[in-house]
Design a protein that fits this description.
Elements lengths: L1 E6 L3 H13 L4 E7 L3 H10 L6 E2 L2 H7 L2 E4 L3 H13 L3 E4 L11 H7 L4 E2 L8 H10 L1 E11 L7 H5 L1 H6 L4 E7 H7 L5 H9 L7 E7 L5 E9 L2 E9 L10 H15 L7
Parallel strand pairs: 1-2, 1-4, 2-3, 4-5, 5-6, 7-9
Antiparallel strand pairs: 7-10, 8-9, 10-11
Bound molecules: nicotinamide-adenine-dinucleotide.
């Protein structure tokens, strides 16, 4: 039985915990959970009918788990990824922007017996980008459109409070690299990090962010050009009820990644 530790018990963590009991209970159980908010721990424990997970600190959770599922924040992932890899554990990471902040990531991976899984999350086309990378990619860009209220607590809007009231219609608020985008919108732009890791890296992947009070959905468009041809792909995401910053598709993608880890039929690149 695979002992799963869930780090971050919010919208994604709770949905994964539920899916483990409903779909994967033959193979795995939620043995530990960690969250800096005790109410979230209570809520995830109440959700589980069969498992009685221990509430642990993040480092103990990593040490006790066979598989860690990170669904907390870039800061939490930044600590948990190196710890898990050093102990040879496997980890599924939702806060993929963290990888851009771990300086010795490639060395860590080389030395580790563990694996790291990065779900495509709220983005479609990641499998095609991986395939395209084999022949060589020349350009990659992601354009993200989000309701302004889901971006309001970002470092970008903390510096530009005046813009919050001024923006009335779809407005291009950011143009830069994936590396810069993750710094400006750490809770909103993991998709840019994922695209960059699948493709030509965080310094070459371009990111445009549009915000508007008129947007009701989170939309991501990717455009990739290479020897293979062109990818133009659009995903329109409904927000999760529990956390409007998170798309419902990201939850589905995390659960599908778990299924891929377990399944003997692995579909997609
Ligand atoms: N890859 C993608 O496409 C994608 C899509 C959506 C969300 N995400 C990311 O996944 C993560 C989880 O998303 P969510 O919607 O479940 O968020 P959420 O806010 O609903 O839940 C996150 C939980 O983690 C806890 N937490 C945060 N930092 C922590 C820390 N350092 N230690 C312990 N607990 C901590 C919070 O208290 C909260 O309960 C976020 O980082 C989010 O940005 C990625």
């Amino acid at each position: 039985m695979i002992q799963v530790g869930i780090l971050g018990c919010g919208a994604i963590g709770q949905a994964i915990a539920k899916a483990i009991e409903k779909k994967f209970s033959k193979f795995m159980c939620v043995s530990s959970v960690c969250d800096c908010n005790p109410a979230q721990i209570k809520s995830i424990k109440n959700l589980l009918k069969f498992s009685k997970p221990a509430a642990l600190s993040w480092d103990k959770l990593v040490a006790k788990s066979d598989l860690v599922i990170e669904a907390a924040s870039i800061e939490a992932a930044r600590q948990a990824i190196p710890a898990a890899l050093k102990l040879g554990k496997s980890i599924i990471v939702l806060s993929t922007g963290a990888i851009l902040k771990i300086r010795n990531f490639r060395t860590l991976i080389k030395k580790s017996q563990g694996s790291i899984y990065l779900p495509s999350g709220a983005l479609s086309g990641v499998d095609a980008v991986l395939g395209a990378g084999i022949d060589g990619i020349q350009r990659a860009r992601i354009t993200t459109r989000k309701p302004i209220k889901s971006l309001k607590d970002s470092p970008f809007f903390m510096r530009h409070r005046d813009l919050l009231k001024k923006i009335r219609k779809p407005t291009l608020i950011f143009k830069g690299t994936a590396l810069q985008a993750v710094k400006e919108f750490p809770e909103n732009i993991n998709v840019a990090a994922t695209l960059s890791l699948a493709g030509i890296g965080p310094r070459k992947t371009r990111v445009h962010v549009y915000a508007s009070p008129t947007y009701k959905e989170n939309r991501h468009e990717i455009s990739v050009v290479g020897q293979f041809g062109k990818i133009a792909c659009q995903t329109t995401n409904f927000p999760s009820k529990r956390n409007p910053k998170t798309s419902r598709l990201a939850i589905g993608s995390a659960i599908a990644t778990l299924s891929k880890v377990l399944s003997r039929v692995k579909i997609g690149t």
